[in-house]
Amino acid sequence: MDKNNNNKQDIQDIIIAGSGPAGLTAAIYAARGNLKPILLAGEIWGGQLMNTTEVENFPGFPEGIMGPDLMQNMIDQAKRFGTEFKYENVTEVDLKGEIKVIKTAKAEYKAKTVILATGSEPRRLKIPGEDKFYGRGVSTCATCDGAFYREKLVAIVGGGDSAMEEATFLSRFAKKVYLIHRKNEFRASKIMADRVLANDKIEVIWNTEVKEVLGEETVKGIKIYNNKDDSESELEINGFFLAIGHIPVTGYLNKQLPLNDEGYVQPLSFGTPKTNIDGVFVAGEIQDVTYKQAITTAGDGCKAAIEAIRFLDEIE
Question: Would you tell me how many other CB atoms lie within 10 Å of the CB of residue 12?
Answer without folding.
Answer: 21
